[in-house]
# Entry
Amino acid sequence: MKKSGSERYYLVLYLSVWSVLYFALGYFSLLIDDPASRVALVWFPAGVAVSAFLSSQRKHWLLIYIVLFLTRTLLDVAVRHSIGTSFAISLVSLTCDLSVAWSVVRFAGHADDLRKAVVWLIAVCVFSAVAALAGTSWLSMQNGISIAHSISIWWAANVVGNIMVTTVLTGLLRGGGPSLKLRWRSALAGALLTAVSTVLIFTLPPFREDEVGLIYTLACLPVLITVIIPVISGNRAGALVYTLFCSIAIYFSWQQIGPFFIKGLRHGEPLLVAQCYLAGTALLMIFIRIQTDSVQKGQAAARHAVGETAYCLDTTTGVINWDPMTPPGMEKIISAVGSREALFALVSPSVKADIASRWQSALTANNIDEEYRFPLPLADGEELAITERNLVCLPGPHGTVLIGYWSLSQPLITLKTG
# Structure
């Protein structure tokens, strides 16, 4: 009963977070709508809704749909629409978002990340077009707005909002990357460079029509800085820096300042270029993230194939636990080295001192990247050449634990005795 109550509490909290985020971004989206069509130029809640569905179990989808539907209806009523219009627009919008999530699960649920991204992008474009036709048709009947003018705005707003917000939320939820110290040092430097370069680009004096190539080339500078952050600082840092980049670009674009407001462009075209600019950056980040994750998974598989395994040393008890996925050739090590004392009993005094020194350094510095090679004699006369790398210090259930990786650096050597 207690567990059931706890589950309900976390479910309510989970739904509340998504609802608040949906309302906040929806309110901001409606502040920057198109005055003529009353359609948001970028609909950020679309990405919130799709992320909410994809990050939760399917048994909760109906509940999420209802909560976000009520949130969307309340938002429209509070800002500008009648109850009937709010109800209809909420139905169209949330059904579109649910359809996108369903398509990803149905056609790429167990596929690799690249296929998931492609299916997601196609579904966003297709269902956004259907929703744009249905939504603008309703608004045309109610308010007499032009369908031809509004349908493209609705479609672009939904697609761009999906791409931008999903990029940020998936980056925050996935995490991953180098060590914490390296991540945040490089992330802070990247955030500063992104902010400075974006502000400089968007505050340059107006350019002539014959200088379009130059200004668009300069506009690529903050994009390059932004997309490299996930590679060197991890997905979460990349998501936050991308949010900073988008905030600056949206602020200046809404003030009709920046590289996209060039003489010769017709009304609405600069904002469309800005939408493509931000969405293109997000897509580039997504595919770089997929490629980076794929390389890391391939490296991990290669390490496993050549006989690498991870160990966890509880520094308080001295117990050493090994990765249950034992590669071939490492079974004897795991059976022989079950504790700190067992390891020290096998190695020579000099190796014992080196290992103890590395562990102490890891406790102080939290991370050691340098490799260390040493011989490990076993009781049956075999001697293994071990390479240890990536020694990390983390908090554990009983105190501090050390995580390290061992691999066989050369074939086994048999010492003949007797």
Observations:
- The radius of gyration is 27 Å.
- The first helix runs from residue 2 to 31.
- The chain has two domains: 2-303, 307-414.
- Residues 2-303 form one domain.
